[in-house]
């Protein structure tokens, strides 16, 4: 039967309509509002050009959130991918009950970020501190969440605990799609396990790395729910001489700005986040794509 | 021919799909009933208010009051904006001060002619008009555990200057083991625990209003012009430093609301820096010792008053078709026997209306009501600050000072810088 392009197109209309209404149009509205002085409610909106953007780069709290977000992303991408890659090797090896482990490692991903934040907050603030004082282990006695220099690492650990199982599944799927003959041939040729992983497995999995790095990169940049419940931005620290919140990532900084009825300024911050994320992820995907091999 | 038919069929199908999804949300039930929608944020009175609204709806022909409550600590301002954008503005909503009024003033009706206006001192006034119905009186001082103070030989009535507090804290600190307490004070200041408001909002209000007349806003107006009263602020800093130094450090730097209130309720701290809203929590935790309020006396001179305020006001949506029904509902709360019963007995609030004769059951609420009757109390003015100032500007400064309470100069400099930015 001959395809009818018109009818095919019609079936796209509902989705396109929704996409246009809730993604495309709000996006351009957002761009517009970032250049106004709108407070979220007032009907009297003035166009102020790039003034909001100019102010951003002289405010210490935004600069700090920006830097700390980059640091968090860097730490988090490495943690999540290393841990999930190792887990995927474990659950594709010949250990007993590996399906049980696959499911088990995936479960944390199903817990919402809000709940998870509160659970880990309790573990860090109460359980570990209590353990530290009853066993007289000094470094456990102050909560990791109340130290400005450890809080980002702590957040990355919690995020890894949640997210590694999900990325692991991507790696598992990729490992399973590699023909076993390839690995067996290498084995027969006398390649050691490490050689097989680094020379065959990893190059063959390049497309999985592209996806996984992209997913972890974008979710780390946009991290919000766990940040809000686990640390709420605290503790305070000092940056460029001004008091700032030590773990307030960009998304939370945007949220707090908006909650203080500075909608236009928050929108300008969101535009900056969007542009940076776009550039970074485009570079990442291009670089990764070059490393992919065709079967 | 067949082809055209298929085309038409497909098009109508898709079109009807789109239109139903658009218009389905637009249909509303039409009936003679007036429905007054109320949107409020005090979770602790949700059940009582729902019950009162149901009772009122049953007793009033043709009017149904529906109350929607935003969950604890939710973003009320954000939720209101969402309601405005989706054209579902409630008929009665809540503002928390001048900031809220400035933003929503196009939607706030004049309530000057309502019968309850003469019965209260705490109605929200703007541009010479009454626009806000005071939800309740709230207030705070430094709550104390009378048993512990008695055992330590401290008379709470003497706690009226900073020097007296310093002496009392020292005694308590020395007798910690004998009294079975962890620290003299349960105070919270952490951004992480979400407790910045205890220090950076309520305690700082002591500097804005303490020792002045109830309506004297001169100190905060000066701050809004970019300046602190250096001499007064120095005395305040010393008082704050005392509270921080003698506080349970785990609670101060990282504790949650439950940690702070729980420690006081278990008798592990002698003082609690919280308002009368902790009464239900204390009752839940089975507190049976005697509790009272001592003043936040930060000055070298004597202070005896507590801090009283209406934390929020109900306002009526001026663009709603149900203005009259909404006004009647508020009047019924203020002026009828059932309304008084709801406020005092069911919701456990201290009503801001003088004609109410019922007494609240909580010890701290009673202490406030007595203080209100006695007079000589102080106003709470943090609502005059720019939106988000407490959380985003003062919060981190107080958190840093709590981490290192010896660094007085840094704290004063940070505060001067922060206030200068308001100009």
Jot down its keywords:
heterodimer; A: 295 residues; mainly alpha; MetI-like fold; two-stranded antiparallel ribbon; 12 helices; B: 423 residues; alpha/beta; D-Maltodextrin-Binding Protein, domain 2; 2 domains; 4-stranded antiparallel β-sheet; 4-stranded mixed β-sheet; 13% strand; globular
Question: What would a concise description of this structure say?
Answer:
Chain A contains twelve helices and two strands; from the N terminus they run ααααααααααββαα. Chain A is mainly alpha-helical and 295 residues long.
Description:
The complex is a heterodimer of chains A (295) and B (423). With 295 residues, chain A is an all-alpha fold. Chain A has twelve helices and two strands. A two-stranded antiparallel ribbon of chain A has the order 1-2. In chain A, helix 7 runs antiparallel to helix 8 and helix 9 runs antiparallel to helix 12. The longest helix of chain A has 33 residues. The radius of gyration of chain A is 23 Å and the shape is globular. With 423 residues, chain B is α/β, with parallel strands linked by helices. Chain B folds into two domains: 161 residues, Periplasmic binding protein-like II (D-Maltodextrin-Binding Protein, domain 2, 3-Layer(aba) Sandwich), CATH 3.40.190; 199 residues, Periplasmic binding protein-like II (D-Maltodextrin-Binding Protein, domain 2, 3-Layer(aba) Sandwich). In chain B, helix 8 packs antiparallel against helix 10, helix 14 crosses helix 15 and helix 17 runs antiparallel to helix 18.
């Amino acid at each position: 039967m001959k395809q009818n392009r018109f009818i095919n197109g019609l079936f796209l209309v509902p989705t396109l309509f929704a996409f246009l209404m809730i993604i495309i149009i709000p996006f351009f509205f957002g761009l517009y509002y970032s250049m106004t002085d709108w407070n979220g409610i007032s009907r009297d909106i003035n166009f102020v050009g790039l003034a909001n953007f100019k102010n951003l780069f002289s405010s210490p709290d935004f600069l700090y959130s920006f830097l700390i977000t980059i640091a968090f992303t860097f730490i988090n991408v490495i943690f999540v991918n290393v841990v999930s890659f190792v887990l995927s090797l474990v659950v594709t090896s010949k250990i007993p009950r590996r399906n049980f482990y696959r499911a088990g490692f995936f479960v944390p991903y199903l817990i919402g970020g809000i709940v998870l934040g509160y659970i880990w907050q309790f573990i860090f603030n109460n359980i570990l501190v209590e353990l530290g004082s009853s066993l007289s282990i000094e470094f456990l006695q102050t909560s990791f969440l109340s130290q400005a220099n450890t809080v980002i690492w702590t957040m990355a650990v919690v995020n890894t605990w949640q997210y590694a199982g999900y990325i692991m599944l991507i790696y598992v799927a990729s490992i399973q799609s590699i023909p076993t003959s390839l690995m067996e041939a290498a084995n027969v040729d006398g390649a050691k396990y490490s050689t097989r992983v680094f020379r065959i497995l990893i190059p063959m999995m390049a497309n999985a790395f592209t996806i996984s790095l992209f997913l972890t990169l974008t979710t780390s940049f946009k991290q919000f729910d766990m940040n809000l419940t686990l640390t709420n931005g605290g503790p305070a620290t000092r940056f460029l001489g001004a008091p700032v919140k030590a773990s307030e990532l960009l998304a939370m900084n945007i949220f707090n700005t908006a909650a203080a009825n500075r909608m236009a300024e928050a929108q300008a911050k969101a535009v900056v986040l969007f542009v940076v994320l776009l550039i970074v992820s485009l570079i990442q995907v291009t670089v990764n794509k070059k490393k992919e091999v065709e079967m | 021919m067949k082809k055209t038919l298929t085309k038409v069929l497909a098009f109508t199908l898709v079109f009807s799909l789109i239109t139903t999804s658009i218009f389905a949300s637009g249909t509303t039930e039409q009936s003679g009933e007036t429905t007054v929608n109320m949107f409020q944020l005090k979770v602790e009175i949700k059940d009582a208010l729902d019950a009162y609204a149901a009772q009122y709806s049953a007793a009033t022909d043709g009017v149904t009051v529906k109350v929607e409550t935003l969950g604890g600590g939710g973003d009320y301002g954000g939720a209101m904006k969402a309601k405005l954008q989706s054209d579902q503005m409630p008929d009665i909503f809540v503002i928390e001060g001048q900031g809220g009024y400035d933003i929503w003033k196009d939607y706030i009706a004049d309530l000057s002619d309502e019968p309850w206006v003469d019965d209260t001192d705490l109605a929200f006034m703007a541009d010479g008009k009454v626009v806000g119905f005071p939800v309740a009186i709230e207030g705070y001082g430094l709550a104390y555990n009378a048993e512990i103070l008695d055992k330590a030989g401290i008379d709470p009535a003497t706690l009226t200057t900073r020097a007296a507090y310093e002496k009392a804290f020292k005694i308590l600190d020395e007798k910690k083991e004998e009294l079975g307490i962890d620290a003299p004070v349960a105070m919270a200041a952490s951004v992480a625990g979400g407790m910045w408001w205890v220090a950076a909002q309520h305690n700082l209000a002591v500097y804005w209003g303490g020792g002045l007349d109830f309506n004297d806003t001169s100190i905060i107006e000066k701050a809004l012009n970019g300046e602190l009263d250096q001499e007064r602020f120095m005395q305040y800093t010393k008082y704050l430093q005392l509270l921080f130094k003698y506080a349970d450090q785990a609670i101060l730097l990282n504790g949650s609301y439950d940690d702070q209130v729980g420690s006081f309720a278990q008798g592990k701290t002698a003082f609690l820096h919280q308002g009368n809203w902790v009464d239900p929590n204390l009752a839940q935790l089975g507190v049976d010792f005697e509790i009272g309020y001592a003043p936040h006396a930060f000055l070298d001179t004597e202070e005896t008053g507590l801090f009283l305020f209406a934390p929020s006001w109900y306002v009526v949506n001026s663009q709603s078709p149900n203005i009259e029904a909404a006004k009647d509902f508020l009047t019924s709360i203020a002026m009828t026997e059932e309304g008084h019963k709801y406020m005092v007995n069911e919701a456990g609030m201290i009503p801001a209306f003088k004609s109410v004769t019922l007494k609240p059951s909580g010890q701290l609420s009673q202490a406030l009501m007595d203080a209100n009757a006695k007079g000589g109390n102080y106003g709470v003015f943090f609502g005059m600050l720019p939106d988000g100032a407490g959380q985003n500007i003062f919060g981190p400064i107080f958190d840093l000072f709590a981490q290192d309470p010896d660094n007085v100069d840094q704290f004063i400099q940070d505060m001067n810088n922060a206030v200068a930015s308001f100009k």
